[in-house]
Backbone:
């Protein structure tokens, strides 16, 4: 199990049986999808700001972003495997090609 899978397992445990008083992930689930989505957006913006102005913070902001993305997926009943499957479906298809096919 890699780090992402272990983190996802922990997040799902917090979703199903976590205590919002002691777990940040459980507190996000308790506050609901709008709050989770808001936090994900904030972390995305913080990652962009780091990319533009503080490159030494990109990794730490990216980790915050990934954490909140996995929380959002778990809240929606989805998983990293769903994202892996979508990326596998796209594997080898150029982004330019895929976009052109949409217009046909
Ligand atoms: N990877 C993370 C992780 N990354 C970021 N964060 C938290 O995300 C929050 C983001 O910080 P902010 O300042 O933006 O948020 P905030 O001001 O506290 O919240 P708001 O008042 O804005 O809602 C911080 O509290 C971070 O500690 C994380 N919290 C938990 N994990 C992992 O999740 C596991 C379970 O955590 P708990 O649910 O807290 O037990 C941990 O063992 C870690 O492995």
Residues:
């Amino acid at each position: 199990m890699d780090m992402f899978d272990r983190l996802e397992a922990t997040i799902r445990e917090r979703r199903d049986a976590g205590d919002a008083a002691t777990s940040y992930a459980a507190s996000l689930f308790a506050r609901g999808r709008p709050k989770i989505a808001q936090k994900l957006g904030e972390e995305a913006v913080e990652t962009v700001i780091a990319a533009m102005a503080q490159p030494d913070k990109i990794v730490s902001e990216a980790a915050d972003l990934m954490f909140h993305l996995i929380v959002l997926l778990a809240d929606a009943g989805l998983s990293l495997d769903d994202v892996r499957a979508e990326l596998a479906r796209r594997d080898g298809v150029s982004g330019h090609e895929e976009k052109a096919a949409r217009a046909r």
